[in-house]
Design goal:
Layout: H1 2-20, H2 26-46
Helix pairs in contact: 1-2
């Protein structure tokens, strides 16, 4: 997955360079660059969070007392 994000980031940077050279409108390439950076950082840090231990606790019902 890291390779895909690297390719997307490089592609967005190249598009942004084309935008700076006025081949592609800059109002299209700049937000795309920031969206790709944001999503790459979000997905790289989002998976490493600890979600806790799962407890298999069964509560006895009141009728069985």
């Amino acid at each position: 997955m890291r390779i895909v994000w690297t390719i997307l980031i490089v592609f967005a940077i190249v598009l942004n360079l084309f935008g700076l050279m006025r081949f592609i409108p800059l109002y299209f390439t700049a937000p795309l660059l920031f969206i790709v950076f944001y999503l790459a950082i979000y997905y790289s840090y989002g998976r490493k969070t600890f979600k806790g231990y799962k407890k298999n606790v069964t509560f006895p019902s009141i009728r069985n007392r």
